[in-house]
Amino acid sequence: MLQEESDLALIIAQIVQKLKGSNLYAQLERQAWASLQRPEIKLESLKEDIKEFFKISGWEKKLQNAVYSELSVFPLPSHPAAPPEHLKEPLVYMRKAQGSWEKRILKSLNSMCTELSIPLARKRPVGEQKELLNKWNEMGTDEPDLSLFRPVYAPKDFLEVLINLRNPNYENGDSHSFRTHLGLIQVPLKVKDIPELKEFFVELGLTAGQLGIDDSTQVPPELFENEHVRIGQKVLSEQDSAAAQQYIRQGSPTALRAELWALILNISSQPEDILYYEQLKTNVIQHDLLVDSLIYKDVKLTASNDDYYFVFEDYLYQVLLCFSRDTSVLGHFAYNSASPPKSYIRGKLGLEEYAVFYPPNGVIPFHGFSMYVAPLCFLYHEPSKLYQIFREMYVRFFFRLHSISSHPSGIVSLCLLFETLLQTYLPQLFYHLREIGAQPLRISFKWMVRAFSGYLATDQLLLLWDRILGYNSLEILAVLAAAVFAFRAVNLMEVTSLAAAEAVLADLSTLKVMPLLQIFLFATVT
Amino acid sequence: MSRLSVPCHVKGTVALQVGDVRTSQGRPGVLVIDVTFPSVAPFELQEIMFKNYYTAFLTIRVRQHTSTHTPAKWVTCLRDYCLMPDPHSEEGAQEYVSLFKHQSPSMTFPKWLSHPVPCEQPAPLLEGLPDPSRVSSEVQQMWALTEMIRASHTSTRIGRFDVDGCYDLNLLSYT
Predict the structure, then answer these.
(1) Torsion angle defined by CA atoms of residues A495, A497, A502 and A505, in that order, rounded to the nearest 10 degrees
(2) What is the pLDDT of residues A162-215, one digit of tens each?
(3) DSSP one-letter code for A35
(4) Which of residues 67-96 of B touch A (CB under 8 A)?
(5) Global pTM value
(6) Where do the domains of chain A lie?
(7) Residue A491 backbone phi and psi in degrees, to 5
(8) Are the beta carbons of B155 and A3 separated by less than 8 Å?
(9) One GO CC annotation, please (chain B) (predicted)?
(10) How do strand B35-36 and strand B47-51 relate by DSSP bridges?
């Protein structure tokens, strides 16, 4: 067997293995059995007839969507000799850095426990369970005393860790070289330059229509918008994930967005999914976690204070509390450089049969985490659907924004991409900001870590997240960050302090995302 | 087809330098690794497997025995095989690599270690889709691999995070 064919067979075997455990497999089996009743299914050509039936009834399309989803999410199988940690992160020094960072988080959480004398987890007494169940839909009205809790970390703490990342095999000279004096990120990851970005984001070019530009009131809808909406409706009726992903690169009409995102993420609300969500809710009712207080605090500090999102406060508690009980999220650690924290049942320290993950989903929220969920509340109002969409967005995209890895969509690559774009195409601005002690990444980091949630107006944010889904990449966050600096370059050249630079860039709520991206990528003279 | 790994002795790297001058500042970009097979009879090599550590290009020369009468010859079977597409960045820097017999160009099979010819980039992109029934029969052959995958991570949802209903935890563990 040639190498390419054995690679392909391995990928297929892996996908088959994954799908065999899914609801879809059970459904397909049931459908195949039921189809035996049909007159067109003949015994002598059973296999072909059933395959034809699947094609006509739309089940083949569902299978295609599931396969496409697996291909989009899971990395290709690597070399047979590569151990599991290599799949998580191939570079040893990055794995070590992630390990050290995690240890710091664990220590921080443990000291919070000891200082406040609160256990990590406890079973709620029955009375408390009843009380919580009664006010499940209005947890926002609760005003628990959270003053003693502090977020485990904030984005700026994480940035310091990234700044100190070093490749032990990389040396740029004995003395401080020119390179080390420029940006903050010092690891030589491969990032795209503008010609490569233009090719990657070709659908955002000047000759293609865009929602976010060509649907503004001055532009007659016959030129682009009407046709684009019509195509969107067709994509939805065909229920084709791959087509939807291609379509959404030019933006999604507001009315179709919820369905399109669900199609791309391969989310359909089956009864099993609603039951699963209810089970998670039961888990929340039964066990109280320290992490819950962190979630409460985060929502109160961020989303509740935001003009756009405060109305969704109750939804946010429901989704995030359930999220932390969801053990299916543990699956994403196979391709995430991070690992879930471990603990032991009280009194059974060191006994492996009593080892558990904490929280059950292995994800410790940080300051601003709830902002990943907030924009989704505009699209989905049914809690279990909202939950499924958020979970899928997290295990596909958001986890990369707060773990140390060499992945092109990982936060380290995004930071380097941002800095490189700025240095290369706006060198004067970059130099000026550095000179006044305002390293650009210190300002833009928080935007990228939150995928711009809470910084852009919601309609603009959703147009941006359309493209994240369409290109299956977070690189657009770095490009937008650079485009914002380019847009405000004139003002930034005049400031003389970090505080003044931050003031120029404090309010992004009036920005129109698509024109900025288009100008930066396709219309700037380089 | 049974394959055995051949015990080998990997010597330390030797830097290639021009002239006799050894300077501490000069850092040669070419290192040579000698691999010997001390106690093995001549064999047919199928695959070389290794983990890269920041090597950009690889050349392999082999001393081949053709027959008992002619002395063994050194031949180049791989020249400047690219392991890192951009040597100044991390791509491919720490990857696991397998080199197969068929990847080195040869005039006659199985004398794969024949003439020193420029090496072409291996494995051209697959044009079009493969034949499904052939692929599915190969999938069945790969079932041993799926067992390995199954062992490394579960694909079914477990759901329970507690141990017998108990989830009382004090502190996180650092190990």
Answers:
(1) 10
(2) 999 999 988 766 555 555 558 999 999 999 999 999 999 999 999 889 998 988
(3) H
(4) 86, 88-91, 93-96
(5) 0.89
(6) 1-76
(7) -65, -40
(8) no
(9) nucleoplasm
(10) unpaired
